[in-house]
Amino acid sequence: MSYEPPSPPANLPMEVVDALNEFTSERLRDVARYAEALAEHKEREARLEEVEEEANDADVEERPDDLPDDVPAKATITIKEINDNRYYYWQWRESEKVTSKYKGPVDQDR
Do the beta carbons of residue 93 and residue 99 sit within 8 Å? Predict the structure, then answer.
């Protein structure tokens, strides 16, 4: 291990470098953990935006006849089991939230 301090990245603003140089080693480790978590969050957000843009750019299939007006065309049908009974639900994503709307019971004959 070198006794010389590390060289900062060339693209790091000097005011950030100066501020970091004033921190204790404990504070620097806190900053490093936060910076890593923040970078992961921003990368995840970018991936979600990219997926949403691709979904919006994709050709939307014709709306099924039984699709309610308040359910988007990108919704899929999901089966949920509640108290040993099975039901169809329309399900779609709105930002980071998954929304469901009741469709009807699953026919036992299928």
Answer: yes
